[in-house]
Amino acid sequence: MEKMEITIAEQLLKIQAVFLRPQEPFTWASGIKSPIYCDNRIILSYPATREIVENAIAETVKREFPECEVLMGTSTAGIAHAAIAATILNMPMGYVRAKAKDHGRGNQIEGRLNKGQKVVVVEDLISTGGSCIYVVNTLREAGADVLGIVSIFTYGLNKGLQCLKDANVRNVSLSNYDTLIQVAAQLNYIKPTDVQTLLDFRNNL
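^ thats the sequence. predicted structure below, dont judge the formating
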């Protein structure tokens, strides 16, 4: 496990942005019974964690996508993270709506985006990958050169990995499901015997 992955996992657990309940699963909107629930919007309410996360996003963009010219957040969860990271990087920022506005100029992409600009998408969470790939495709249709995605957390679901592969887009996450589970066990958020149950859930989806 990389140091950054561990640090971010620790922070997500500390502020309860992630809950693990292997014995009492949550019900997702899809009806799936899940032992994990993740809400990275909570990060914004904790200044110390927020600073760690936003600096990690900025550093990841610089390291993994040095040619990046514009950050684009996903609506709505990625907007604030993209804005803060863009401020750190002194870089232009915008965001992509879930659908075009039905009034005014009918924008779907907010902010200035020129054809050919090199873009990195900022996402809070990747599960099946559908929503962020929609954003990537919208930007590509507008003429952007999408270099990749930087996300805070990924479940590493097979469906999500395949979705990213099919769209020919690279995602770099600050932390991930496997790291979080190992950290949770080490910090006694869960029992060591729960680790395999949690891994089986992810692997069987």
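The two ends are 23 Å apart (CA to CA).
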